[in-house]
Sequence to fold (128 residues):
Amino acid sequence: MILFILAQTEKDVLIVDQPEDDLDNQTVYEDVVKLIQAQKTNKQFLLATHNANFPVLGDAEMIISCSESEDEIEVLCEGIDAKECQQRIVDIMEGGPEAFHRRKTIYQLWQSAKLTLSAFNRFIAKEK
Fold:
């Protein structure tokens, strides 16, 4: 459905709530984010998402993040280059620094083609 919506050329503003619904991350990046990037100069996108691929890989101009505590909702509106905005992306969308760094380490192991089952098990045991 999102690809159909993005194909509508007569619209100059597109507002979508959770465009990642029912899509895997590969489809989100390969099909949706790349299409958004190609249309950025002619269209404004307002996306409510939990998927970091949209703001990070889509090179968002402005990010509005919300968090809530007991009696308060905090809204932060910044460009993606702002450190506090980047930290919120890691904390909220990536599951926090520990989850982000663990995935990064595992991906690097996979990339180096040195990931054997025993190396992976040693890594996991060390993390516990």
